[in-house]
Amino acid sequence: MPKLIFPENFLWGVATSAYQVEGAAQVDGRKPSIWDTFSHEPGRTADGSTGDVACDHYHLYKEDIAQMKALGLKSYRFSISWSRVMPDGTGAVNQKGLDFYKRLCQELREAGISPIVTLYHWDLPLALYARGGWLNRDIADWFADYARVCYEALGDWAHIWSPLNEPIAIYIGHAHPGLPPGLGSEKAGKQSVHNCLLAHGKAIQAFREYGPDGGEIGCVIDIWKHHPLRDCEEDRKLARSGDENSFRQFVHPILTGDYTDYLKQQMAEQRTTPYIEAGDMRIISEKMDYFGLNVYNRVLDSADPDAAISDRKKREGHDFLTNGAELYPKAIYDAIMMLKRDYDLDIPIIITENGTPDGQNTVDQNGVIQDDERIEYLTGFLSWLYKAMSEGVDVRGYQVWSLIDNFEWGAGFTARLGLLGVDYATQKRSWKKSAYWYQKVIADGGLDGIDCVE
Predict the structure, then answer these.
(1) Which tens digit of pLDDT belongs to each residue from 110-168?
(2) 362: helix, coil or strand?
(3) Which of 216, 353, 373, 408 is catalytic?
(4) Is 313 exposed, middle or buried (0-12, 13-18, 19+ CB in 10 A)?
(5) Does 166 participate in catalysis according to the annotation?
(6) Of the residues 166, 186, 216, 408, which is catalytic?
(7) Would you call 353 a catalytic residue per the annotation?
(8) Which of 116, 379, 339 is nearest to 221 (CA)?
């Protein structure tokens, strides 16, 4: 079988986020974020864990970068903790916090690894939440000021940036109870969407003024394409609504400068239309340099719960992983081709996250976790990614989620998505089988002995 060879300068990498790996929650001047308080509320995480210590990456970053170098990584995507750099969200800068990210970027560069920096990955400073958080329109300017501080401090080492990771989490945290602040108000959800989109646009404007010469900035949107389970109008309507109220409420205004007609009509009918000022949409649709795509799977929608249960039972054992997720690697191809078809996307794509939790793994005689299902999952996604690239789509990089097992939000430490395992009692890192596999993929420049999907 042939090799599927990716471009020589392809950014093979991994991704993490600040609250999920750094720990050091009360160290060197950092103040709480909304996740610090939320995770400490009883019942918010599956195992009662928090990000107080997490993987202690704040203290062990040099060890972790040594692991990245051994893997052969070309890039490392991480996020900055806003409340570590500006503990009150605005005003004084915490130099000790900022210096950590300087050391991190410098160490990465010395290891030959390109930093890919996200300014916000769900961890709003608690001080800003007290001032209205994402429901306060002023947050767009607060965020732009924070962005400028980071660009000026780190721009000499970090050239690829994004303002917000998966802003859908901001919407969910306001429209539903499962993520902070857990308001459960659709009206609040839609206003938070508009305000974070405005913050995204203003952060790009700040990048053009204060960012590094030749630097690149783009969005990071997760696309879980909704599919009707059955060929019927009920299921098609659910799938359409699912797309519109998830990724399209971000992708469409960013790429076109307006919300979809569907969403505008729905918001008008539900009386959830956000407050919008003249000129907002122009700011929201500021030109980007790349599109960051997080993709994990698809969503199957059905108005009949029994049909969904029956479908899953029929396909158990061959279409599903033992962690419970459907194995549908074509999701990455579907998302990319949707961007090309619906939006005529003319900027490069970086796959900024893709991964799956451990399943029912075995351990070999050397103590190495045999996470073969992760290898099967990643191989499938990379094969479909290669197909999209072979059809002319400009994809510049691929970041596995994640480098190491970490605090996985509501799942706590129960969901392990790392190429490297973590013993949380000792903070010892260990390579899983998938880490050795990914090391070879990077060394080979692609997949060996795999046919491109048809």
Answers:
(1) 999 999 999 999 999 999 999 999 999 999 999 999 999 999 999 999 999 999 999 99
(2) strand
(3) 353
(4) exposed
(5) yes
(6) 166
(7) yes
(8) 339
